Description:
It is a single chain. By secondary structure, the protein is an alpha+beta fold. Helices cover 39% and strands 27% of the residues. Strands 1-2-3-4-5 form a five-stranded antiparallel sheet. 34% of the residues are buried. It has a single domain (2-127), classed as Aminopeptidase (3-Layer(aba) Sandwich), CATH 3.40.630. The protein starts with a helix and ends with a helix.
Amino acid sequence: MAAARESDLLLARTHPLPDGGRARLRLARTRDAEGIGALLERCGHRADELEVGALVRFDPRKLFVVCATRLIEGREVIVGVGAIELGEESTGEPQLLAVDHDLDGALRDLLRGALVSRAIASAGARAA
Length: 128
């Protein structure tokens, strides 16, 4: 259960970034569809409406989707998104990990850590 606590803690606060800014991790929401689509496009990934829809309307027993956001000019902007399968089908590796190019590195590691921690916690809970 330590992995579950670690994942929850990563989602419960903002995180400093090397550029001096801060990012917040949170679960994806349906109203994030436009922002996720824009992020994926900025990252060179052509995501169709169905793919983005699946990210914001996920079954939390099977998939864990996290957004990284920053306040930019007074509004919350999605600067990263990641998804990982949960349960027996999980490979333990994110199936999606996209981060704005200028924030890559530390933010990518932070998102990956939150995703993998949740997958480990989910696998442990199922095994118990």
